[in-house]
Amino acid sequence: MTEAHDAAGVFATPRANLETQEGPPELWQMDFKRLKRLYNASQSIRTLAAVYALGLVLFLGGALSLANSRYTISAENRALVSLMFVFAALSLLGVVTTLLRQRWARWLGIGLCVLGFAVVPIGTLVGLLGIVAYARGGRLFGRDRLRHKDVVEIYEQRKRTKT
């Protein structure tokens, strides 16, 4: 160990070399305000994946609970079970496509957010916030997308240095 290491202690904060600027150059050249919007959109889109997963569990659980009922299922209940399975499938598709971030997944996510407007008031709020996130996060989708990991790392570095 060096004397400087001994003097600072083993619990000293590590010093990063910010001159290397690793990652996509586009993120380093972007003004900080725009990068912050992209960061917030990326975080929101990841949160939407968790919301879709919760919807998947709730719709699938509800559909299976109704389908496995001991009582005779009426025609209305069969329609409800079928609708719940459709929403569970859409939720699963939302989870997978939001995490994979293909170009068309952005449009699917916007469609799911619009469908969420029907579930007043929480679905309306989530749908509105989701549409804003998808609108601001266009560069996060498609073949030449910016990866969430890169956006977070560069945002955190630039936030510390205020560049």
- Kindly name the structural category: mainly alpha
Number of strands: 0
Output the number of helix runs. Answer: 7
Oligomeric nature of the chains: single chain
State the end-to-end distance. 33 Å
Low-confidence stretches: none
**In the residues, how many domains can be counted?**
1
Portion of residues in helices? Answer: over 70%
Q: What is the alpha-carbon Rg in Å?
A: 22 Å
The portion of residues forming beta strands comes to under 5%
Describe the structure.
The chain is mostly helical and 163 residues long. It has one domain. It contains seven helices and no strands. Helix 3 packs antiparallel against helix 4, helix 3 packs across helix 7 and helix 4 packs antiparallel against helix 5. The chain starts with a helix and ends with a helix. The model has no long low-confidence stretch (mean pLDDT 86).
Short characterization:
The chain has 163 residues and is mainly alpha-helical. 71% of the residues lie in helices and 0% in strands.
Helix and strand arrangement:
Blueprint: H1 3-8, H2 25-29, H3 32-67, H4 75-100, H5 103-116, H6 122-136, H7 148-161
What labels describe this entry?
163 residues; mainly alpha; 7 helices; 0% strand; elongated
